Write the structure tokens for this entry.
Amino acid sequence: MKTLKVLCLGLITLFGFQACDKEEEEVSIEPVTISDLTCPSAVFSGTAKAGVTYNGVFTVPYTGGDGNSYTSDNGVSSTGVTGLSAVLVPGTLAVGSGVVTYTVAGTPSAGGIASFVINFGGQSCTVAFPVTESSTTPVPPVGE
């Protein structure tokens, strides 16, 4: 019985060391490259209204994709109309043409144009996101 226990412990130890000896696989993400971003052709998932919380997405067409995968970014805040931020959604480029997607969230400060400067795949452009004025009707003072 003692020999069996020693044999079992020996096998457990052997397999345990083998499991610990495995080398970790390195995962590397190659930088993506594209030849052009077409910000004027960006498509928005909905309409943003001044003073109202907005959650949506926009897509920006590109050409010259290399097929590499990409991760999210730190995001970019809107200028012009402030209060919104856009964050790149991780994905994989098509070889050739496709779209990159950004989530947009926040509360626009006013009506007008919220601009996002997009830097992706070695290219840069500005996405112009229209924000409508709030349609709240002023309430007349009591007694009038």
Q: What stands out?
A: Residues 90 and 137 are 41 Å apart (CA to CA).
